[in-house]
Amino acid sequence: MSNQSYDDGPLNTDFQWELEQLRDGTEATAAEVASVQRLLSSNPSSEPQFSLRLMLGVSLVPLFAMGLLWVSGAFAPVAPQQVDLAAAEWTTLEAGRDVQLTFEGVGHLTSLDDDHDIDWREGQLKVAVPPAQGIDLKVHTPEALIAVVGTAFEVNRDLTGTTITVAHGRVAVTCAEAEDIVYIESSDDPLRCWATTAAARVNQAEALMAARKDADALAIIDKGLAAAEPHSYEQATLYILEAEVRNRRPDVDAPAMLAAAEAALATGHVYWQKRGHRLAAIAATRDKNCAAARPHLTWMAEQDAASVGELAILADCIADDDPNTAARWLDAAIERADEADLKRKLQRRRALIP
User: Fold this and answer.
1) Which of 12, 137, 183, 235 could bond 228 through an S-S bridge, CB–CB 3.0 to 4.6 Å?
2) pLDDT tens for residues 188-201?
3) pLDDT band at residue 24 using 50, 70 and 90 as cut-offs
4) Residues 57-72: what's their mean pLDDT?
5) Is the overall model pTM greater than 0.70, yes or no?
6) How far is 4 from 7, CA to CA, in rounded Å?
């Protein structure tokens, strides 16, 4: 490398013409001109300056201007635009070039030029994006990622998950539980991406049970139990729902129903005690298992929560081992019975106990 000296003193006069052009032929301020002058004062003060001038000629002036803009921060990276989306009623927002958002709920928009990312947390969101305009828009929910180039679609998020409906065009959806991208169009049914928390699984199972989709409900309950914290309210609730689903199935699995009810009771949540004991008693009775039914029927009888029929079943289960207690529960059942025929049947059974 040649031994070039660097002059920290006054500006070499070789660049005086360019500085004059910068000062007089542009809108550069005095401070910006001075900044460039300081930069040039530190450059080599020999022939390379002259060579650079010959190569660039008058185009050097716009380059200096660009340098000034960079120094002054005019070409600094643009920060994304951040917008909170929150509305209790339907609200429309123009988000950049021909992108329209109509929403009722809560979310957040991050935009930079034609790139838009929406973090949607709750409620309904309708998106309209013109096709073939190079606009990249994505909607994120905890359950799904929806990517779109040109279309109109709706995102609805509630306690059970995210539903995507396409008005026209096509969107690419990746559900949190799935690895593959699913493409849906306006001719397709809405796509459901289920929420994956235990609390969400409770809501999903209840919705499926209301729709009489018991097999699907059991599958969701299994996923919820895998996500639930031990002894949590969600765990107890999911076990109760499992027992209830199994109870209404024609091919009831009584041992599995009993296990679910007793698992709910084992969590210790008082709210589900009565329902848990009743479901356990029903399961054991269906299985003709008096030994398993007895503690649950006894708990309900002692809490004054047993029905007339449950008191009668309890009396039958314990008549051989504890006739005095069986007689007491039958007397209680007779007293509560409203129908004359039922009362007479119970009185006949009571007469058989010494």
Assistant:
1) 235
2) 999 989 888 999 99
3) low
4) 44
5) no
6) 10
